[in-house]
Amino acid sequence: MSAPALADEAAEAMAAGTTVAELRADKRVRRRRATLPYVLLAPGIIWLVVFFIVPMWSIVSTSVETGDMDTGFVLSWRWANFGDVWSQWHQQIIRSLEYSLMCTVFCLVLALPLAYFIAFKAGRWKNLLMALVVAPFFTSYLIRTLAWKTILADDGWVVHAMNTLHITPLLSGMGWTYSDNSVLQTPFSVVCGMVYNFLPFTVLPIYTAMEKIDPRLHEAGQDLYASAWATFRKVTFPLALPGIVGGTLLTFIPAVGDYTNAVMLGGPKTKVIGTVIEQQMIGTGGNIPYGAALSVLLMVGTLVITLAYIKKAGTEEIV
Amino acid sequence: MAVVNWFRKHVIAIVAFLIFFFLLVPNFVVVWMSFNKPSGKYNVKWEKFSFDAWKNPLDDGILHDPLMLSLEIALLATLVATVLGTMIAFAIVRHSFKGRGFVNSVLFLPMAAPEIVMGTTLLALFLNTFGVSFLGFKSILIAHIMFCVSYVVITVKSRLNGMDPMLEKAAQDLYATPWQTFWRVTFPLVAPGIGAAALLSFALSFDDFIITEMTAGNSVTFPYWIWNAVQKGIPPQVNVIGSLMLIITLAGIAVAEVPKWLKTSKAH
């Protein structure tokens, strides 16, 4: 350190009423405080950047490659791959969107009363019931999805009951199933499995938002002669909106890419875009650039839908 | 009239009960079918009660390797993701730093991306940089750590946010060094949050299928084994393992919740 700098430091210490040594120690601590957050953040954030952000670039570059399995794929910037995959598989893309939209709507319809009941009516059973909502998570979801094959089997009591109540002809009339006495391997069974698998994702954020609502607001609504329904619509729903937006997104986004339900509970007529991607990337399809192009479409599509939806719902607090 | 009134008063409870039924019935079916003795290779239809699958839960050792691989990956991924995620949570709640928006979006996006997208992007990265030979234990582990970190961060963050900062101030007033304050006050208070985060990571990793399938190469985890076996027929032993997982979870919930519940019911 040069002489003028030392003099400056001494003057600074005198002004602060401390010694030079104390001033230096203080600066060291402050410097350590300033770097500490970056030390804490670095390992995890670098991991996410390298294995989540960088791969986004990898998939884009893979999606414009050409070649085949035997000779390998080379980067040739063939953007026409996107046109190819759209014309070949747009049916499956649209079907995936339909299934995941239906799944999200049904999940919301089921999640609202469930979250409402647990948040406001369950009292001291609250935590236990929330634990039961997530408990199914702890048995492999593929096994639980297979259980629906047993439940919805042609000669099972569920289908018998649906027959007696004339629900099966109604479903096949709507085109959700293909015959009057069977529901497996149809859009109905696929969406049923999806709703079952994603419902906890819808319930959790809605419950969290509802739990924060002061129950006295409900009493106030009743004091002002609002019916239970009006109180829900004018008080509960708007206050729970951030949770509803979060819950529907956490349902819709994973549902678009899901293919496990479509394969396990569906049939040849319920093939979704996830299955196509799976087959192209690691299966019998064997055209990795096509699989990559479909992934990019899915990625950009969900991002656009998500941003538009958040803007429309007017909330940024989704987590 | 009384019936109608009763119904109107309890309609929300009835609906909630039916939804719980919908959510929990498949778990009972899993347990119930573990006692089945299927005549063919498909364990879909109930035929005959038997303890055969429970006496031989690994199906003559066929399930040993996939289960061990899944357990190993889940334990390692949980360990690394919990450490990385806890560090990030502390930085976010306790420190000010530049680039907070960037950090938040990097953490949020993995939770908001479809699994198939994360799987295929990682596969593209691994294929482009290392080639097919890299796929296996290492690539699955990298992927699992990646998608677990965000969940650890939100779980630990909410625990940290709910903590009274006065407790740490009090420790400092009593001349505790920052190091002592952290290990004697902060850490014990945050520990339940870290434990919950670790449990969640373990469950997410152990159960993951789509990302795993994309990055697995020739390695076969337990969910991947089930997936491959669907066409050939799933043995009831898979249901036994599913049932055991459920029993362990419910026991965990009981241990955590019953004492609290007893305490409140005594207070009433």
From TrEMBL, chain A:
Residue ranges occupied by any ABC transmembrane type-1 domain in the UniProt entry: 93-309
TM spans (from-to): 38-60, 99-120, 127-147, 188-207, 235-256, 288-310
Source domain of life: Bacteria
Gene3D superfamilies, per the entry: MetI-like
UniProt cross-references to SUPFAM superfamilies, sorted A to Z: MetI-like (SSF161098)
CDD domains: TM_PBP2 (cd06261)
Protein name stated in the entry: ABC transporter permease
Record's bilayer topology term: Multi-pass membrane protein
Location(s) in or outside the cell: Cell membrane
Pfam families to which the protein is assigned, alphabetical: BPD_transp_1
Primary location: membrane
Similarity comment: Belongs to the binding-protein-dependent transport system permease family. CysTW subfamily.
PANTHER family: INNER MEMBRANE ABC TRANSPORTER PERMEASE PROTEIN YDCU-RELATED (PTHR42929:SF1), INNER MEMBRANE ABC TRANSPORTER PERMEASE PROTEIN YDCU-RELATED-RELATED (PTHR42929)
Presence of keyword Lipid metabolism: no
Protein keywords: Cell membrane, Membrane, Transmembrane, Transmembrane helix, Transport
Organism name: Catenulispora pinistramenti
From TrEMBL, chain B:
UniProt xrefs under InterPro entries: Bact_Polyamine_Transport, MetI-like, MetI-like_sf
Residue ranges occupied by any ABC transmembrane type-1 domain in the UniProt entry: 67-256
The organism's place on the tree of life at top rank: Bacteria
Transmembrane segments: 12-35, 73-93, 105-127, 139-160, 181-204, 240-258
One Pfam entry name: BPD_transp_1
UniProt entry tagged with the keyword rRNA processing: no
Compartments reported by the entry: Cell membrane
Membrane topology: Multi-pass membrane protein
Keyword line: Cell membrane, Membrane, Transmembrane, Transmembrane helix, Transport
Alphabetical list of Gene3D superfamilies matching this protein: MetI-like
Alphabetized PANTHER family for the sequence: PUTRESCINE TRANSPORT SYSTEM PERMEASE PROTEIN POTI (PTHR43848)
Family designation: Belongs to the binding-protein-dependent transport system permease family. CysTW subfamily.
UniProt name for this protein: ABC transporter permease
Organism per entry: Catenulispora pinistramenti
Taxonomic lineage of the native organism: Bacteria, Bacillati, Actinomycetota, Actinomycetes, Catenulisporales
